Every structure is written in structure tokens, then in C-alpha cells.
Amino acid sequence: MSGFGEGLGKVEVKLRWDPSPYGEPPRHLDIMAATYAVDDPYGRPVYVVHTESRSPDGTINMSRHSETGMGFGFVEAMVLEFERMSRAFGRVVVGVAIHQDRGARTFGDISNAGVVVVEGYRELLVNDFAQVADATAATVAEFARDASGRWGFREMVQGFDADPVLFAAEMGRTPEQ
Q1: Which of 10, 31, 52, 85 has the fewest CB atoms below 10 angstroms from its CB?
Q2: What backbone phi and psi angles, to 5 degrees, belong to 106?
Q3: Which residues 6+ apart lie within 8 Å of 126 measured at CB?
Q4: Is 50:30 a contact under the CB 8 Å cutoff?
Q5: Considering Cα of 165, then 18, then 59, then 40, what sign does the dihedral take?
Q6: Residue 161 to residues 11, 12, 14, 62, 76, Cα–Cα distance (Å)
Q7: Tens digits of per-residue pLDDT, 16-35?
Q8: What's the N-to-C CA distance of the chain in angstroms?
Q9: Would you tell me how many other CB atoms lie within 10 Å of the CB of residue 57?
Q10: Quick count: other Cβ atoms within 10 Å of Cβ 132?
């Protein structure tokens, strides 16, 4: 887990993918963030933020959403404001899930998929999902508080074979769980 000076402040996770080929059903990806209590950082999420939601305190929200990809760069974005997040939270895991309602799809089936995590102008992560090509969902980043309360970042690209609902429940587990 790397920390940066005073810790992380406002972070943005951005997602891109190309639309499906002509005549095929739309491909729909979603950014998801699961929050974990400081006293149970690997337990059940306290809440999950995704397409149609935001955190109760407004510190995690979707600023842009697409259900089809557009091929115009990053079409979906989530903002996480760690400097405002309650001390009750000690860990946040961010992932991406592919909706499976129009036929099974993996990241290998999605053209030009990519995710970037930035704080201001600093890129913390750039990934094209190549190492999780057979997965239907993947975690990409883990944010955790250190002993002094500062938020740090760790790349956490790990594939899952799960629909978005199951993925939301599993995404914060360690590989040993």
C-alpha cells in the first residue's frame, strides 16, 4: 500500500470501452466501489456504490455513466473523496463488472476496454484488463487507511467469474477467503 504525503484526497476512476459491433446487443460495464468498516476491513461491505447510487454521505458517486460504451474515450467515471470520508471506514475496493443480461461476456470480448485511476493529474493506475481477459468482473484498486488515518492506494487487478450482484458481495475478499 503506497501512501502519498498527506494521503489521498479526491480520486477519480474512469472506464472506457467501445460499443458492440453493429447488430449485436449493447455491452454494458459498470464501475463499483465497496466500502468496509475500519474494524472489519475484509468482512461484508457496509455499502456498495454503482450506477444508480452514491454513498450516503456523498463521498463516492458516479459523475458519468454509459450503458453502451461510445468509443469516445472514458465514458464512465466515479469520484471518491477520501479527505471527507468518515473515520468509520478503513478500506474501499473498486472494481468493474460486465452486465450479463444479454449473453455471457468477458473482458476479452470487450473491445478497447480500459480503466484509469487518477488523483488530480497523477495516474495511479492504467490497465486494459488483458490479464483478466477470461473474467466477467475484476477488482482494480484498493484504498486503505494507515495507522495515522491517511488513505493510500494499491493496485489490485484480480478477475472474478461473477455477475454484478455476486461480485459486489465478493470483491473485497482476499484470495485466501
Answers
A1: 52
A2: -120, 170
A3: 114, 115, 116
A4: yes
A5: positive
A6: 27, 25, 22, 24, 22
A7: 988 777 877 777 788 999 99
A8: 20
A9: 12
A10: 22
